[in-house]
Amino acid sequence: MVIQRSAVTPQGGLSPIKQARSALARDLDAMAVIALDEAREMPTGDERTEAILRNAVELHELLSGNPDAPAV
Question: In this structure, is residue 29 part of a structural domain?
Answer without folding.
Answer: yes
